[in-house]
Write a structure and sequence with these properties.
Elements: H1 3-14, E1 19-22, E2 29-33, E3 36-41, E4 46-50, H2 53-58, H3 60-65, E5 69-71, E6 78-82, H4 86-103, H5 117-125
Length: 127
């Protein structure tokens, strides 16, 4: 992991409710909020974020116009974001905060942990 990606990782782990654990959609680590995977790195210069369709709609014009962002599909909660500078890293963290906020447990409700063991294996079979 390069210095820029390491900085993004540290910033993600500072976001409220974000924890790092094994990913459900492939090998390697991922970032989770309330039992939902919200992010994972793809190589040293891109990250996949689960921002939700609603958040995408709210920021549609900005996200569609940004060269760093690629949406997985019209019905997908996921976007890929490329980064190569400190400004890009700040943008990634801003979007990750949106993703985290969209998945946090309601106030007064205990957040679910990331899946492990057989629960994680079951999720992997479906992806």
């Amino acid at each position: 992991m390069n210095r820029l990606a390491s900085g993004i990782r540290r910033s993600l782990l500072e976001l409220d409710g974000v924890v790092e654990s094994e990913g459900a959609f492939g090998d390697g680590q991922a970032f989770w909020v309330n039992g939902k995977q919200i992010a994972s790195f793809h190589g040293s210069d891109a990250i996949e974020l689960r921002i939700t369709r609603q958040v995408f709609r709210e920021h549609r014009d900005r996200l569609k116009a940004d060269r760093r962002v690629r949406r997985h599909g019209a019905s997908s909660d996921w976007i890929d974001v490329s980064f190569g500078s400190a400004e890009d890293a700040q943008f990634v963290v801003e979007l990750a905060e949106m993703a985290a906020a969209a998945h946090r447990a309601p106030v007064g409700v205990t957040a679910k942990p990331p899946p492990t063991g057989t629960d994680l294996a079951r999720r992997r079979r479906f992806h």
